[in-house]
Amino acid sequence: MDLGELVPRHKADLESARAAVAAGYPAVEPVLEALLHWLQDANWPVAHELIPFLSSIGAPLVPHIERVLRSDDLTWKYWVIGLLIPSLPAHAAAVFRPELERLCARPEAAERVEGLDQQAREVLDRFGWDGNASAL
Length: 136
What we know:
By secondary structure, the protein is mostly helical. It has helices at about 15-25, 30-35, 45-55, 60-70, 75-85, 90-95, 95-105, 110-115, 115-125.
């Protein structure tokens, strides 16, 4: 199988997105980062196909999510925080707890405008984390 066929070429390339889902994990592991790029806007048709699948992968997605959170793309961060991190097992999501707490307590102006502070609060609440990172 050509892994390139599993990565959408445009936001409406549902055939490639469905091929990635059908291939499953771990077959798509080499292209996870490329697939995650299609969550830069959850309104894109391919995002609707990929979100449930990527969410199901769990802990192996953590390093890829870390790269998104280090990026400057606030919209992408918004979707990843709201759609992928809450789907992770608590032990895997805990990696992101310090950053989520920072977003709640000290968001940059642009992060606040994008709603990252609210997304982060929802994730912290979902996991029952009270904002005290030392409890980990």
